[in-house]
Amino acid sequence: MKHLINILKSLLIVICTLLIFRCSSPQIETEVASPDGKIKVAFNVDDEGAMSYNVKVDDNIFIDDSQLGFEAKDGLNLKDAFEIIDVNFSSKDETWTQIWGENKIIRNHYNKMSVDLLNEDSIFLTMTFRVFDDGLGLRYEYKVPDVDRIYLTDELTSFNIIGDGTSWSIPADFETYELLYRTLPLNEVKNANTPFTFKIESRKVAKSEPIYASIHEAALTDFPEMTLVLRAGTGMGAGAGADFEETAGSQGRKVTKSESMSRSEFKAELAPYPDGIKVKFENLKTSESENLKNSQILKFSDSQILNFSGFKTPWRTIQIADKAVGLINSNLILNLNEPCALEGDLSWIRPLKYVGVWWSMHLGVESWVIDDRHGATTENAKRYIDFAANNNIDAVLFEGWNEGWEDWNSSSICHFDYTKPYADFDIDEIMRYAKEKNIKIIGHHETGGNITNYENQLDEAYRWTKEKGINYVKTGYAGSLPDFHNHHGQYNVRHYRKVVETAAKHQIALNVHEPIKPTGIRRTYPNMMTREGARGMEWNAWSEGNPPEHHVTLPFTRLLAGPMDYTPGTFDILFENTRNSPQRKRWNGNDKGNSRVNTTIAKQLANWVILYSPLQMASDMIEHYEGHPMFQFFRDFNPDCDWSEALQGEPGEYIAVVRRAGENFYLGAATNGSAREIEIPLDFLANSCQQSAFEATIYSDGDNAHWKTNPTSYKIEKKTLNHNDTLFINMAAGGGCAVTLSPRN
Question: What is the CATH number of the domain that holds 169?
Answer without folding.
Answer: 2.70.98.10
